[in-house]
Amino acid sequence: MITVTIADDQPLVRSGLRMILEGEPDVVVTGEAADGAEAVALVAATRPDVLLLDVQMPGVDGLDAMARLAAAGTTTRVLMLTTFDLDEYVYRAMRAGASGFLLKDMPGEDIVVAVRQAAHGADALLAPALTRRLVDRFTSDRPRTDAPALDRLTAREIDVLRLIARGMSNAEIAAELFIGETTVKTHVARVLMKLGLRDRVQAVVVAYETGVARGPREP
């Protein structure tokens, strides 16, 4: 069973998400929180597989809660909930370790799929088109940053990182590069290890901030 905690200050949102998730045979909601502080306490107490975390809440908001969870080294996958698909708070939360974000008006079946993907560490990004647009929006006007660890990546690993940033799954990357999917999985694992990243979402952020996602640097 996939265990889920829901954190949102609106009772109707929480009850709606609970209804959607508990209609699935492999998902159970183990707790609800009305603010970030409650969410952090619940995660520590029950260790759910996935936390649905609202960005904007009174008191301790979603961003502060994400920072606390990251500092505590939680293994719970965090999906940020937002009403807006371009929200800098979500981008900052992704940098802190969130596994992705969901729009509150997404179809219920898409939310269920996202929760399953997060719980099982699926190779595809959550809401990839929105994630790419979000990251691109908030890195396009910023100077590119240097990541010394990029020098440890091979040319093929750089190619894989660039395709990860485009939201491609392992199967899609394999087809694009004409290599086996098992080989792609190995490259992805090495990219994450060499860059010290938790998952593919953080890899996307690094790819955009360093300019890898936009192609080679200008001489």
UniProtKB/TrEMBL annotation:
- As stated in the Swiss-Prot or TrEMBL entry, residues carrying the post-translational modification 4-aspartylphosphate are D54
* Domain Response regulatory per the UniProt entry, residue ranges: 3-119
Assigned keywords, A-Z:
DNA-binding, Phosphoprotein, Transcription, Transcription regulation
InterPro entries cross-referenced by the UniProt entry = CheY-like_superfamily, NreC/VraR/RcsB-like_REC, Sig_transdc_resp-reg_C-effctor, Sig_transdc_resp-reg_receiver, Tscrpt_reg_LuxR_C, WalR-like
Name the Gene3D superfamilies on file.
Answer: 3.40.50.2300
Domain annotation HTH luxR-type: ranges = 146-211
PROSITE patterns on file: HTH_LUXR_1, HTH_LUXR_2, RESPONSE_REGULATORY
Molecular function GO terms recorded: DNA binding
Determine the domain of life of the protein's source. Answer: Bacteria
A Gene Ontology biological process in which this protein takes part is: regulation of DNA-templated transcription
| Ranges that cross the membrane | none
Q: What is this protein called?
A: Uncharacterized transcriptional regulatory protein yxjL
